[in-house]
Every structure is written in C-alpha cells, then in structure tokens.
Amino acid sequence: MGVREISVGGKNLEIHELENVCDTVTGRVLTGSWIWDSALILSQWMMNTAQSRSQPEFDLTGKTVIELGAGAAGLPGLTAAMLGASRVVLTDIEPLILGLSRNVEANNLDHVVHVRKLVWGTDESLGEFDVVLMSDVFFDPDQMGALARTLKSACGDLTRIWAATEIRPWTGNCLAALADQGFGLVELSDPVCVDLTGPGPKQQSSSFAVFSLVKQSDAGHVPPAFSDFWG
Length: 231
Ligand SMILES: C[S@@+](CC[C@H](N)C(=O)[O-])C[C@H]1O[C@@H](n2cnc3c(N)ncnc32)[C@H](O)[C@@H]1O
Known about the structure:
Structural class: alpha/beta
Strand content: 25-35%
CATH architecture: 3-Layer(aba) Sandwich
Bound molecules: S-adenosylmethionine
CATH topology: Rossmann fold
C-alpha cells in the first residue's frame, strides 16, 4: 500500500499503510491495514471544527483522546495530536500495533501519542478520556455489544464520542444495537458524498456522516428508530 501524505492544519502527516497483514485464524487480510475513507472524513471534520473556533466544544486543546479500532494508521488520533490534544492513545488488535507505532514515530508524535492493544469487550480498561474517536467501526452488529462495553469503560460523564461512518445497508443495525446498549446518536455533519478511494475495485460514490454518540440518559433527544435514517 505504501506511504500517504495527508495534510493536517498546514502540516503533512506521513501515514504508512500495511500490506497483507492477515488474521492468523481466518487467513483474511485485516481491514485495519489501510486507511478507510471514514478516517479521512473524521480527520477533515475535526480540522474544520477546530479551525472555525465558533464551537468550543470541539476544541481539542489539552484534551485526552482515545481512538478505538484505529487500524494501522490512526489518522483521526494523530490529527487530534496535531490539533493540540495533550495525550492520545491509539488502540486496535495486536497485529496492527506495530503499524500504529511506526506511524507515531514517523510523525515525531511519540511525546503525545501512545499505542495500546485493546480488544473490544475485554476487561482491559485504559481509564477515562475527554474524547473517544472511531472511524468505520460499524460493520458488524454482533460486535456492538463488545464495543459498547469498551466505550463505557473509556467514558466519564463529560466524555464526547465522535464517530465517522460510511452509510451502508447494515449501518442502521449497528446503531440500533448500540442504542440497545444505551447509546443515542446526534448527527454532527450533513452526509458527505465522496468517490471511494479505498482498497478493492473502484466503486460508486458513497455517503458518509460524522456524529456524536451520547449515553441515552444524557441524550436529551434520541432518534426514535435508527432504521428510519440509516436504512
Ligand atoms: C474498517 S477498519 C477501520 C480502520 C480505521 N479506523 C480507519 O477508518 O481507517 C475497522 C477496525 O476496527 C478494528 N476492530 C474490529 N473489531 C475489533 C475488536 N473486537 N476489537 C478491537 N478492534 C476491532 C479492526 O481491527 C480494524 O482496524
């Protein structure tokens, strides 16, 4: 896959993608080996909101940040570090950890950004953070219970959870599964339509959205049925 240069706040991030890192059990290539378009969209959205300065709740200066399912790239978490976060932890499954570390080092961010293995749903907790980032992790409704458990261990009362996703036929099922676990949804961006640049054969354009997950007791307003919005 090689190396990509991605501009963040006037500086370039150097992102190394992995080739052929396979699951030792299934033999399938790990999806976190490369950057997904959702990561680019979340990173861009964070830059835009940080630069607009009209919404202080999106200011990352001095914040602690964890990225779940960061893949080998960790682009949203690295972007948070570039935007002033005081501590960032990039997490994913073990086979992607070396790739994440390489990207932290390549961008000289190791004084702020740390890398940890974190499998959703396990007892392992890395403590509470100000902000949780996720991109393209809503692909398997059966995994959402485990993800919700990890989210709860990373969230205090004031934690903000920002997620970007491609809107696929099963996205609504994933969000409904998270709602069952107590997380509501507030959309932060209008759906963005882009030509897909990711791996695999060139596909048609697709829709993406950035939103905040909110623990339902704090949500104020929770959409009544995700399937109404997400198909
Ligand atoms: C589609 S990839 C997205 C990678 C990256 N966030 C991006 O947008 O470029 C989904 C990521 O979720 C991670 N993931 C899936 N299930 C997981 C689990 N149970 N525990 C931890 N990470 C998981 C995968 O390893 C993979 O890196």
